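User: Could you go from structure to sequence for me? I need the amino acid at each position, not a summary. Structure tokens:
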């Protein structure tokens, strides 16, 4: 039987709608979004409006010997009439009147009903012809082309987003959703393209209208159909090979690559709302509780396909995953919990898949010129950083030997890889429930690369401390290193072999690491002093503007409250946060050497005195920090669990940290 998809493409290329369906390569992501929009053709052989040729010189040569004709000034003559016959005038008048009618067309609910009714008729006619002429695709080709044009014509809704609710009410969205199961992949891709345009952020629809559209799309099963088509439009067969659907010689994968890209674009558009973001990975409609939408296993399998160079779709799959995990805690917990048994990959979890993707970069960074590979690399690290902040994610990181891999990257990876791995370890160790990870960190010789980075000559330069770390991914973050050291002190069991090894690092080589720690403190306090001078000047100037009228006082006080919050954040960014990390480590060292048996406390006091500071200054830092994080409301016993309310877990963690600070202050 003739392949309808190829037949449909051939006909489209030779019709006036041809340029609208011509596929473009995915070299430029932005150009792909215009893939199915109407274009113009320079091929004069195509039917449609004639191409005007510049034959002026030929006409002049042909008429050179003809006598000049006088211009006729009377009305209806050549001067006023342009040399047109009455029949030609009638044609032009008809076209002008038709254009005026189009310009005056009213886009309202009536128009919506007409368009949806038209779409319904065309879909039914196409279905009937497909059944009747199932063995002769050329017989239903016209209805297929008409359906394709009608789908594209609905893109005008992007200019009338207030009609989205009416479009949903009259089942227009349901019809578009049904086309995702169409046998012709061009029709499928056209329907996907339409929905992508309707939900694109550049459309600037009102949030309420967009919510109606996205919610209806989720409830109508459109999301499920999109996910089904991700498998149907398999864009990686040529790379990885496929026994179920082998690539044929001469077969073009470009349409399928375009379709996958557009589906991922639509899925990203679903993240505009929290409610629709939460259902992208988790299906809560089943009676048995939360299930899988099948999007997650597809994303995991797609990012694990080995490609060189990395394709845009592989990078986009990693980006979409990181966006969903960042915006939805339900998805993060589901991601950490789910296990899959893939025929190609074996038993697989989400964290395991991310670690496998990063394993390829354990000794080097992706080349800078390979933009897709660099973005893929960063997106995978972002996803891992997000997930390991959850207790379930920490468990999976430990279970899949993630600490060992991350330390391998810190030891022998590229510059960007080292910086990213250190940040992931900081996130993983940052809570009070990270004791198993902390032990594993030390057991895998993590102290060696940790303090090698800590003693880097870069941190000993005063110029490094004159400005805030701007989230650079090219250098290891000092704040992340300090965070890891503080977390190890907090999470390693008391008097354990691992904690003794940590303390010993600060004693060896004549307390050089204590000297570095106090050097960092001096640099940080100097920067904070400069910042405090600026803030105090701004605050004094603002206080002078205090109004005398009672009516204006309330607004002024509100403005002052906002400015105080801004000044507080400015102080944190300019050394306040780092000082908290440093002083926590100092307090832990003093606490671990309570009787000064190791000489740690004596060395700290000496170094503090050289910087005109005392242990009381350290205590003041911890006290201010404790007061900032102390929960405003108490939590109930048993309120916190792996699936509990996120606010309750944050209050529990803050309360636990505040209690730790209180204990440390007693040693000071």
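Assistant: Here is the amino acid at each position, in order:
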């Amino acid at each position: 039987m003739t392949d309808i998809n190829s037949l449909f493409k051939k006909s489209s290329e030779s019709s006036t709608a041809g340029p609208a369906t011509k596929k473009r390569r995915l070299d430029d992501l932005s150009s792909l979004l215009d893939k199915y929009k109407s274009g113009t053709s320079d091929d004069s052989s195509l039917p449609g409006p004639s191409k005007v040729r510049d034959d002026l010189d030929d006409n002049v040569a042909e008429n050179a010997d003809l006598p000049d004709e006088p211009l006729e000034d009377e009305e209806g003559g050549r001067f006023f009439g342009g040399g047109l016959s009455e029949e030609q005038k009638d044609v032009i008048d008809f076209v002008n009147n038709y254009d005026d009618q189009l310009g005056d067309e009213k886009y309202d609910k009536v128009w919506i009903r007409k368009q949806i009714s038209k779409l319904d008729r065309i879909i039914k006619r196409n279905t009937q012809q497909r059944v009747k002429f199932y063995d002769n695709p050329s017989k239903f080709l016209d209805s297929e082309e008409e359906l394709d044009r009608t789908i594209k014509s609905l893109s005008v809704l992007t200019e009338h987003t207030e009609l989205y609710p009416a479009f949903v009410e009259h089942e227009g969205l349901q019809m578009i959703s049904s086309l995702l199961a169409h046998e012709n992949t061009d029709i499928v891709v056209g329907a996907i393209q339409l929905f992508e345009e309707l939900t694109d952020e550049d459309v600037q629809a009102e949030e309420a209208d967009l919510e109606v559209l996205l919610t209806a799309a989720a409830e109508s099963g459109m999301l499920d159909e999109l996910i089904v088509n991700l498998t149907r439009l398999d864009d990686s067969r040529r790379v990885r090979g496929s026994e179920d659907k082998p690539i044929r010689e001469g077969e073009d994968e470009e349409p399928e690559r375009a379709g996958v890209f557009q589906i991922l674009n639509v899925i990203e558009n679903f993240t505009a709302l929290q409610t629709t973001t939460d259902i992208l990975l988790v299906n809560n409609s089943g009676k048995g509780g939360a299930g899988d939408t099948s999007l997650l296993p597809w994303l995991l399998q797609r990012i694990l396909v080995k490609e060189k160079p990395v394709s845009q779709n592989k990078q986009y799959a990693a980006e979409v995953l990181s966006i969903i995990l960042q915006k939805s805690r339900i998805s993060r917990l589901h991601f950490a919990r789910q296990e899959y048994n893939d025929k190609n990959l074996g038993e697989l979890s989400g964290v395991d898949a991310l670690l496998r993707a990063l394993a390829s970069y354990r000794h080097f960074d992706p080349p800078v010129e390979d933009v897709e590979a660099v973005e893929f690399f960063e997106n995978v690290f972002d996803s891992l950083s997000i997930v390991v902040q959850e207790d379930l994610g920490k468990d999976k990181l430990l279970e899949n030997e993630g600490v060992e891999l991350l330390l391998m990257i810190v030891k022998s990876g590229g510059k960007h890889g080292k910086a990213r791995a250190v940040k992931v370890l900081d996130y993983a160790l940052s809570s009070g429930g990270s004791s198993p990870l902390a032990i594993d960190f030390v057991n895998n010789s993590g102290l060696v690369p940790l303090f090698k980075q800590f003693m880097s000559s870069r941190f000993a330069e005063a110029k490094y401390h004159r400005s805030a770390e701007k989230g650079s991914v090219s250098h290891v973050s000092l704040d992340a290193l300090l965070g890891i050291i503080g977390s190890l002190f907090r999470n390693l069991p008391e008097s354990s072999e691992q904690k003794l090894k940590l303390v010993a690092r600060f004693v060896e080589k004549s307390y050089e690491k204590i000297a570095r720690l106090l050097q960092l403190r001096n640099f940080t306090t100097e920067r904070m002093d400069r910042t405090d001078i600026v803030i105090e000047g701004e605050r004094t100037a603002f206080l002078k503007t205090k109004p005398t009228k009672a009516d204006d006082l309330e607004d002024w006080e509100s403005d002052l409250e906002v400015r105080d919050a801004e000044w507080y954040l400015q102080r944190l960014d300019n050394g306040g946060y780092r000082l908290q990390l440093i002083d926590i480590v100092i307090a832990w060292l003093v606490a671990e050497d309570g009787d000064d048996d190791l000489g740690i406390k004596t060395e700290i006091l000496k170094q503090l005195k050289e910087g005109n500071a005392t242990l009381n200054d350290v205590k003041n830092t911890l006290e201010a920090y404790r007061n900032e994080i102390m929960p405003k409301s108490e939590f109930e016993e048993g309120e916190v669990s792996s699936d509990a309310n996120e606010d309750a877990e944050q209050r529990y963690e803050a309360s636990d940290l505040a209690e730790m600070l209180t204990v440390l202050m007693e040693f000071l």
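One structural detail worth keeping in mind: Residues 1-34+104-238 form one domain.
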